[in-house]
Structures are given as C-alpha cells and as structure tokens.
Amino acid sequence: MMSSPPPLWNGSTDGRVVIVGASLAGLRAAEALRAEGFRGQLTLIGDEPYEPYDRPPLSKSVQEGWISEEHTTLPRQRDIAAKWLVGAPAVGLDLPNRQVQLADGAPVPFDRLLITTGTRARPWPDREQAALDGVLTIRTRDDAAQLHAHLAAGPKRVLVIGAGFTGSEVASVCRERGLQVTVTERSATPLAGALGQATGSFAASLQRRHGVDLRCNTTVLALEGDAHKKLRRAQLSDGDELDVDVAVVALGSLRNTEWLQGAGLAADGRGVVCDAACRAFNADGVVTDDIFVAGDVARWPHPLYNGELLVVEHWSNAVTQAETAAHNMLATAVTRRAHKHLPSFWSNQFGTNIKAIGVPPFADTVVLTQVSSEEHRLVAVYGHQGRIVAAVAANAPRLLPAYQSLIEARASFPPELHASDGPGELQPIPAGFPKRGQPTHDPGAAPTGAGPNTPERWVEGEALKLLDPRIPLGAPPLVTLHANEISTEKGSLMQAVPTGGMRS
After folding, report:
1. Region Disordered: what ranges (predicted)?
2. 336 closest CA partner among 21, 36, 18
3. C-alpha to C-alpha distance for 280 and 144, rounded to whole angstroms
4. Do 237 and 258 sit in the same domain of this protein?
5. What is the residue range of 167's domain?
6. How many domains does the chain have?
7. Angle at 118 between CA 343 and CA 161, to 5 degrees
8. Rounded to whole angstroms, how far apart are CA atoms 461 and 107?
C-alpha cells in the first residue's frame, strides 16, 4: 500500500488559504503570505462592505474633522492577488469538510484557514433604548460617520457611558468642540480596566481639569426618548436625571466568535485559543496544523506572563501576530517561530499622550518612578509578585524603551532607578484593577486564564452584576469627588507625587 502524501500545508506555498476577517490583521497576513512566497488561491472574507480600514482614528481624528471616515482605508503594501468577499459574513465553520459557511449559504473551501474576526462594540443592553436616535457606539466606519454628524449638529450635552480609552477619547473631542459632556464610569476612576484605579486617578484629574462632568462609581440605569424616538434623558445610579441629546456607549468590546459555535475549536466569548505559533487548539485541547488565529480575537500564551492566555486589542499586536501567523502557515516544524510581541498601546486625550508597554492588568502593584509637575509628565511601573510586568507614561513616550528592557529582563519590582526626576522614596501601592469579567471597560490587553479547555466562569452570586453594565458594583456615592480631592483618595497613585506635583 502506498503511503499517503504529506499534508498540503506542511511548508507548501500552494493550495487554498482563506482568511476570515478583512481588517488590519487579515490584510497584513495576506500581504505577508505573498511576501513569503505563497502562490496559491487567497480569499479574504469580511462582514463589512469596505476594504480594510484603520480603526484608531475613528474615535479621535475623524471626530475632530482632521480626516473623514472614507480616508481611513489602510494602505496596501503589495498586490495580494486575492478574492475579496466583503459584505459576506461567515456564519459557520465545517472542519470535517474544510469549508467556511457564508450568510448567503455559499461554502468557501480551504486548505489552511486564518481567523482574524476581531471584535465588535458591546451594545447597550436594552434594545429599545439602544435604537433611540442619538444612542451610538464607535467601532466601525459607519459608527464614526454617525457620531461625527451628531457632534457637528451641536448637541447641548453628550453622555459618554464608559471611561475606557474609547470613551475618554470621545469625551476629549467633545471638550475640544466646546460641547458639554458627562462621563459615567462603573469603576472608581477612568481607565481603571486598562491602567488600574491608582493610575486612573491621574486620568480623573485630567478629565475634570478640562471641564468633563465625570461620574465615577456610577452607571446609567436607563435611556429615555421622546414620542419621535429621539434620545432626551438619562437616569443615573447617583440619582440624577440628565437631559442629553447624544449618548455614546463605550462599554468595551465583544469578540466575534459566535460563528464558531459547535465547530470543534477552543473558542468562546474570550476568543479563540492558539499556541505561540498562532495555531488554533481544537475543543479537546489538541493543537491544529491548518487553522491559525491572529489579532483581537486570539487568546495566546506569552512567555512573560506565567502561562496566562492573553487577549490584546492593540494595533501593533494585530500586525505582528498576523505576520507570525502567515509565516507559520507556510513553515515546516523546524522553521516555525513564536509570537512574543510585548503589547504596547497609546492614546491622545485632553492634550496628553498616554502610552503603555506590557500588560498592566496582570499586575497587583504599581509605583510612580518619574514625575515632572511642570510638564504634567509621569511614569508608573507595574509589578506582579516582585517582578516588573508593565509601565505607563504620560507625556513621556521616549522613556518607555528602557522600561521595556526591564520587563523583558524580568527585573525586580520595585525598580531601583535613582532617576533625577523620581520621587524621594518609591511608594508601591495596590494597582486597583476591577474584577475579571467586568464588561464596562476596554482593558486593551488582559490575561484570561490558562489552558485551552479552561471554561468561562463567573463569580457565583456576582454574575448579574458583572454582566449588566446598568447595575452598580457597589452602593452609589453620596457625593461626587471634585478634581482637587482626587490626589487624596486612598489608593491613589497621586499620593506618591511630591507636594504641588501634577496639579493645575
């Protein structure tokens, strides 16, 4: 009997490659495949009717009017000679027959598959309220166009629900436009999910200093419309009723994995599990050789984070992971490479550049290491069990490469830097991250548990609170803290600032 031929995907540059997800990761993977010599049939499937476009400008540059949403199309680095199936969402995966099922019923056969389906905006939980004219999310080109039109109309007050990076950037744009804006945040500070409450105290002071009506430890209980189904009012958990014309729902994201239900992969609401080579695990915990994952939808192990599977919603990670996946789709066992990109991200808001390296939500402790009150500049370092795992800088991006080296070297926490602009004494304090599973923030990068077969779990008795963003996590505060009280809050990073530091 003749032996069967080796699998087509084992180092082959021919065959049929299908990429589900026609955004940044999908496009860059397709370009990398061609650059590495793939000669076969290449198909990209996308649920939106547009060519791949850049998402970060949607909440900032587009809203400021610097560019239109039509001009966010990603530049092509090479001709990928691909078949584009845009506006044709995938609704199922048939692994035995090696086919992707489209919404119109058409099957798309493949030899190798790359999943880059990314995320979507978490919607407001009440469908009737979410459908009111003026209730918006911000994730897609269409979302950006709608928000820009509503802000350009000059609303009397904008409500931003959620003070993660997206919500904070929208609030910043509103203030730059001279619009009154109220921001509600379920946690104790803005950016608590991404940077923790200690560092978030700096973000709270920044927002209030620029005229934002910031309501922390506060949720929106209901949105109300008029007889014409236009948004008119919001009920807050602190007892206030606000007259608002626009409400931007910025409650984080949901990973697009529903189409994989029952397909036999290790995929759930946290993402699709893959190994460091971007190969997907099946439901039995066995790694595949022909299914790959990259970008926001991937859950993958990073060697610096104790085997935890990370989800990373950063531009740079999407690019580097897509390129690694493409390489490994064409590689043999001895030429595969691991994806070890250290997550990094940045945001411009309220005239301040905030940039981070590593995975802050992995940390339990944070310490202020450098500060300049005159320049409104600071650097904070995050530690986990005595090791540096992340750093964040405000108005000091050029300082981060040195901290990246410390993270990669597994340097001890707190660091002994003896910086000329450092505080007299390092004062580590709890980082103050929300409970895992809280869906009212966008962490950017976060650990999600270990092992491909670890089930999704919620804390018993807390499930409803964690899942429904309308329900406060604790008792509503009697009073709202003012900006000049932020620096004295217990557990605030600003406790470590010398007298007079970082206040305006």
Report:
1. 414-456
2. 36
3. 33
4. no
5. 121-252
6. 3
7. 85
8. 43
